[in-house]
Design goal:
It holds the Pfam family ABC2_membrane_2. The chain crosses the membrane at residues 20-40, 60-84, 111-139, 151-170, 177-197, 246-269. It comes from Winogradskyella aquimaris. This is ABC transporter permease subunit. Helix content is 74%, strand content 3%. The protein is globular, with a radius of gyration of 21 Å. The chain has 14 helices and 2 strands. It has one domain (2-271). The protein is an all-alpha fold.
């Protein structure tokens, strides 16, 4: 495993574009630190300081920061599809196979890289969240700090699932631009399926089906925290209440999709004439 991971990391680091995108994808989560210290002056009438609104309190901070950080996953998604596009355009895939790397090892090297970067991103956002929480949270008891830490697991699984999908599209289309475009097409397809079932069997069943779709199931892992923030300010407003918790079956669905995408990527490579 370490040999395959080292081989892939070396390829990425020697590529200038990939190196820049990787650095950007790791630096951007630190903007949460910047946001936490922002003070917005509204024409001298009052000053809004995000850190004083309570959104960085434990345990809510795990939800807020993982949701915010997940929006930057597209930068490393470019790296993932480029890993495949460059292999085909530079003929390194064929050369690696000639040099003794099996097709299974080739796919595993990509998967190990996905897991490695997802783990690094999770560790990074954990440290950033912990520091911000210690600075701004009104609650610093250990039992409260570790509450809802499952959002970090959900964030990690979400990244692995999304990058596995990108890997599959990269293998399917061989071109980075086409693979990224297919992410948007996938998004449209999922909503078309939703509207089809919505018109046939009703809204409730349509949503249940929609929640099993790849992109939607990944989104469900870390729901938007805006309503939750509003709930803390207006606790009696039942109309804005919603289920924001991380559920085991949501993680299972995304892990299932991840395994399927890796398997399909391997099958494509096995059957493809290089």
């Amino acid at each position: 495993m370490l040999r395959l991971l080292k081989l892939e990391l070396q390829k990425l680091w020697l590529n200038k574009t990939s190196r820049i995108l990787i650095l950007v994808s790791f630096i951007l989560p630190f903007t949460v630190l910047v946001l936490s210290s922002i003070k917005i002056n509204f024409f001298g009438l009052f000053t809004l300081e995000l850190g004083e609104l309570g959104i960085f309190n434990f345990p809510m901070i795990w939800h807020v920061t993982t949701f915010f950080a997940a929006q930057f996953k597209f930068f490393f998604a470019i790296v993932v599809v480029s890993m495949i596009g460059n292999e085909y355009s530079n003929k390194t895939l064929k050369q690696n196979l000639i040099d003794g790397l099996s097709k299974k090892e080739f796919i595993l090297s990509k998967f190990y890289t996905i897991v490695f970067f997802s783990l690094c991103a999770t560790v990074l956002i954990t440290l950033v969240s912990f520091v911000i929480g210690l600075i701004y949270s009104s609650y610093t008891e250990p039992s409260i700090i570790i509450r809802e830490i499952e959002f970090l697991l959900a964030y990690f699984v979400k990244l692995v699932g999304f990058f596995s999908l990108c890997l599959f599209f990269g293998m399917l289309l061989k071109r980075s631009a086409f693979a990224l475009a297919f992410l948007f097409i996938q998004f449209l397809i999922e909503w078309l399926i939703f509207w089809f079932f919505n018109s046939k069997v009703g809204n409730e069943v349509a949503w249940k089906i929609h929640n099993f779709m790849p992109l939607q199931s990944m989104w469900n892992l870390v729901d938007q925290p805006i309503q939750r923030i509003a709930m803390t300010k207006y606790p009696d407003s039942n109309d804005i209440a919603y289920d924001y918790a991380v559920h085991w079956y949501e993680i299972a669905i995304v892990l299932g999709w991840s395994a399927l995408f890796i398997f399909l990527s391997y099958q494509l490579l096995k059957k493809r004439d290089l």
